[in-house]
Amino acid sequence: MFKAGFVALIGRPNAGKSSLVNALVGEKVAITSSKPQTTRENILGIVNGEDFQVVLVDTPGVHHSKNALDRTMMKNVRSAIAGVDLIIYLVDGSKSPDGEEIEYIEHLPEPKIVVKTKCDLPKRQNFDCDIEVSALAKTNLDKLLKMILEHLPEYESPHYIYDPDFYTDKSIKFLIAEEIREKALEMLHQEVPHGIAVEIIRFFEDEKAVCIDADIICEAERHKGMIIGKGGSVLKEIGSTVRKYAQQLLGKKVVLKLFVKVEKNWRDRPDKIKSLGY
Ligand SMILES: Nc1nc2c(ncn2[C@@H]2O[C@H](COP(=O)(O)OP(=O)(O)OP(=O)(O)O)[C@@H](O)[C@H]2O)c(=O)[nH]1
Ligand SMILES: [Mg+2]
Predict the structure, then answer these.
(1) Residue ID of nearest Cα to ligand 1 atom 1
(2) Is the Cβ atom of 60 under 6 angstroms away from ligand 1?
(3) Which one of 120, 155, 190 terminates a domain?
(4) Most buried in the list 59, 98, 107, 211, measured by CB within 10 Å?
(5) CA atoms of 219 and 229, how far apart (whole Å)
(6) How many CB atoms lie within 10 A of CB 206?
(7) Looking at the domain assignment, is residue 167 inside a domain?
(8) CA 39/CA 184 separation, integer angstroms
(9) Is the pTM above the cut of 0.70?
(10) Quick check: bond before 164 cis, omega within 30?
(11) 161 neighbors 53 (Cβ within 8 angstroms)
(12) Is a pLDDT exceeding 90 seen at residue 187?
């Protein structure tokens, strides 16, 4: 019997959804960071086996909306919930869920599995859940996969929803843009990271190299200075890390040029949000 289906990973910002998707897929599908609200759109991570294909849907963290980007992110969560065979709700194992979160979990449609994450950390809460996992220490991942398969539709013959050679639905361009955003999230603080978006404006390949130009979009002139850094140091570090990543991904020399652009209040502009693909 072959099992195949869609599984949405839902939870508060920073709960560990993207880390768990990456750990289950065994490839870096989604960027992660210690700053909340890292993931902005639904990203598929495909786990392939001889007799199964699990399509994981990584989603943005559930939070109260303050702007148009937040509202788009929450729309992405709702559409993920509506279109899957199973919901996995992730509770951050290092924090106690509040009443609002418990009520949210109760109202999620069945079937669902409640997972406590980050079980490698010293426990600080005793919330009742179906299974505890650690994406970093790779604890209980096989057990979770088994639980997932129990809930998926069964087929008499192989039923691959996606080509099993792929581990995500996202393009190389997307992965590189996100890698730039991840490095920026890591290096920048306070209000800057949340106001950043990345747009690949040129992607040109010849026999010798791939030339990539990307805009790092921010919300204010003062943010631009912080992203560039003293003598260009921050931008240089982002560029050199991401260039190495892109070279590995493409198996070719990469020439990466980064530009910083100010787009005031872009997070409140639905047209800009749409053109960025969120
Ligand atoms: N110790 C430990 N840390 C973890 C684990 N899983 C995730 N983290 C950390 O938790 C933070 C958030 O992880 P993400 O995977 O980005 O969380 P997320 O739920 O996708 O967050 P959003 O995209 O913002 O909603 C990062 O700093 C991760 O390194 C884990 O199993 N153990
Ligand atoms: Mg995420």
Answers:
(1) 118
(2) yes
(3) 155
(4) 59
(5) 16
(6) 8
(7) no
(8) 14
(9) yes
(10) no
(11) yes
(12) yes
